[in-house]
Amino acid sequence: MLGSRRFLFVVLALVAVLLALALLKPRTVHEEQAGAVSTGLAIQAWRSEKGARVLYVHAPQLPMVDVRLVFDAGAARDGDRPGLARLTNLLLDQGAGEWDTNTVAERFEDLGAVYGAGVARDMATVSLRSLSDPAYLAPALETLAAVVQHPRFEPAEFARERERTLVVLADEKQQPDELAARAFYRALYDGHPYASPVTGTEASVRALTVEAVRDFHRRYYVAANLVLVIVGDVDRARAEAMAAQLADGLPRGEAAPPLPPVPATRGGMQRLEHPSSQVHILMGQAGMKRGDPDYFALYVGNHILGGSGFSSRILTEVREKRGLAYSAYSYFAPMRVAGPFVVGMQTKAGQAGEALKLLEETVRRFVDEGPTAEELSHAQKNITGGFPLRIDSNSDIAEYVAMIGFYGLPLDYLATFNARVEAVTVEAIRDAFQRRVHPDRFVTVVVGPQAPPAK
């Protein structure tokens, strides 16, 4: 039976894709709805009875539905128990309601449904992908509701996942990139909730208890702390029923309090010895939050500086011209409050000092001078030309819509994205980088067998 149902799911999905490719044609967007004109998206939003924010996109091309529940329950809510948010999220499907761990997994698998969960610093997510046929969708939603609303948190499952986490932490100690990232966040966000490592520490994870997990779930997995996204082949009435089932089956609760502002970056260098084949370097500062007024100038500018691969300034200077590194990059990671601006590279130990100096000089020059008109034009075409590929599946759409809902971005964010990219000027990039990026205050972390001299 299990094999036949899997086969049916695959066949239906393939047939649906072929039909969609054959029949797909442009759709219009009603003026009262917000969305992406280029893709025909239309985002509708409402509040559930218990206060969850619901965002819905009707996408009938495929007989599938993607559901994403996003809670303000990420690692920033760990408090003095790093790793608590992640462990809580991991345990949701390890027994729920009247079903044990194996039964929960089998219920999803027998329906061809895909369950997912994950934690970042800002958020905890739970997701479901299912066929939209009620014979499959209804039991999948029933299982999902039990997982989110009534997880068992059995002591035996808790102990098993905690031990697995300790294995992950032991492995991370052997990974220079993980060591660098932990040290970077710790130095950059010293005293702020973002400093808490998502996986936790060996000491903090060993100290976690089942009661702490249950308390965390009761506090943060509530309707008032939830953004629910529904994308796929269900009409508005069915989406409203799904929202009621998933969101209003939770306690109303309260939204998580605002996070404190990020302290000013103090700069400095940390050097960590590690017997790796290469030196891993991270440097940067607090960058910007989601919805930041400088977002598009900084985003397009960074695409030129270090976010566009082989055409970026950083990779051209460090790798193409001098062969000092295989990988070199920069990026902004906007979050609820100022996420990091990161500049990174991996290089040979013997040339780490030279490579770091060149990396710093490249960033400083870009901050001082900004991009050329030619670089800007190339970046704008690259970003806008590739944008449709980022939302070419229901799961991609669900991810973007979840971001819009969680961070309170305008519902027309996707519709106006390309236009706002095209409106960025050389002067706007130079002005934003000079006001917002300060290389003299960068935190720098160097992990490897040798380290360059301190600045």
Describe the secondary-structure layout.
Blueprint: H1 2-23, E1 43-47, E2 53-58, E3 64-71, H2 84-91, H3 101-110, E4 114-119, E5 124-131, H4 134-149, H5 155-172, H6 176-188, H7 202-207, H8 210-220, E6 226-232, H9 236-247, E7 268-273, E8 279-286, H10 295-307, H11 313-320, E9 327-332, E10 340-347, H12 352-369, H13 373-390, H14 394-406, H15 413-422, H16 426-436, E11 443-448
Parallel strand pairs: 2-6, 7-11
Antiparallel strand pairs: 1-2, 3-5, 3-6, 4-5, 8-10, 8-11, 9-10
Helix pairs in contact: 2-8, 4-9, 10-13, 10-16, 11-12, 13-15
Q: Mind explaining what this structure looks like?
A:
The protein is α+β, with helices and mostly antiparallel strands and 455 residues long. It is built from 16 helices and eleven strands. Strand 9 (327-332) and strand 10 form a beta hairpin. Helix 2 (84-91) crosses helix 8, helix 11 (313-320) runs antiparallel to helix 12 and helix 13 packs antiparallel against helix 15. The longest helix is centred in the first third of the chain and has 22 residues, at 2-23. The chain is globular, with a radius of gyration of 23 Å. Mean pLDDT is 91; it is low at 1-39.
Percent range for β-strand residues? 15-25%
Strand order of the largest sheet: 1-2-6-3-5-4
**Helix-and-strand structural type:** alpha+beta
CATH class of the largest domain: Alpha Beta
Count of domain modules? 2
CATH evolutionary superfamily of the largest domain: Metalloenzyme, LuxS/M16 peptidase-like
- Main pleated sheet: 6 strands, mixed
Order of helices and strands: HEEEHHEEHHHHHEHEEHHEEHHHHHE
Pick out the low-confidence regions.
Answer: 1-39
